[in-house]
Amino acid sequence: MELVVLNNTGKETGRKITLDETVFGIEPNKHAVYLEVKQYLAAQRQGTHKSKERSEITASTRKLKKQKGSGSARYGDIKSPTFRGGGRVFGPKPRDYRFKLNKALKRLAKKSVLSQKMKDNSIKVMEDLSLNAPRTKDFVTLLNAFELNGKKSLFILPEANDNVYLSSRNLPKTKVLSYNEISSYDLMNAGEIIFFEGAVEKFQENLKK
């Protein structure tokens, strides 16, 4: 399985790069993808929600009326959940929504997404890019060359590159990440995935550990 390497103007360089079929050519496992995306989204939740229960309400504890003889239901104090302003029954409490998944399952999820993207012709490889300084204008030119302006795109770097990252930071539909920061959610959320040439081998090795 091979892909043509493109330059930063979107033209073919004449070189090809070999992709590992055990990473980019497997039968997608939808359930594995579902679990990793669910884990990613759960980890984004703050979990700081809180409502007051009956014991936490500041109000009188006086019994509103006698227990028997009224002809209606029994009443306790004004903090009862049946009254407006009373405590809430089984309300939310601060909690951590994160949960653990096996590394093998997470690798399977990434391989599944990449294999589906490969079938959809949504993966490209471009030669490594070096910018002398952060300039959004230069990155917009790159997006236009790949016909990605206004589309969701993910650029995968072989290593951290501040100039490339800062050049793309103000572009709402463009995301730039290093190969070891990628989650299945990032891959799923991108319409087009652009690998920098040096990132392909590192990414494949990372998924085969």
TrEMBL record:
Short name of any one Pfam family annotated for the protein: Ribosomal_L4
Gene3D superfamilies xref list: 3.40.1370.10
Record-linked InterPro entries: Ribosomal_uL4, Ribosomal_uL4-like, Ribosomal_uL4_dom_sf
Keywords linked to the UniProt accession: Ribonucleoprotein, Ribosomal protein, RNA-binding, rRNA-binding
Tree of life domain: Bacteria
Keyword Transcription part of the UniProt annotation: no
UniProt-annotated stretches for the region Disordered: 45-77
UniProt keyword annotation of Ribosomal protein present: yes
GO CC term, one of those recorded: ribonucleoprotein complex
GO BP annotations listed: translation
One term of GO molecular function: rRNA binding
SUPFAM superfamilies: Ribosomal protein L4
Subunit annotation: Part of the 50S ribosomal subunit.
Family: Belongs to the universal ribosomal protein uL4 family.
NCBIfam families assigned to the protein according to its UniProt record, in alphabetical order: rplD_bact
Function: Forms part of the polypeptide exit tunnel.
Protein name: Large ribosomal subunit protein uL4
Provenance organism: Marnyiella aurantia
Gene it is expressed from: rplD
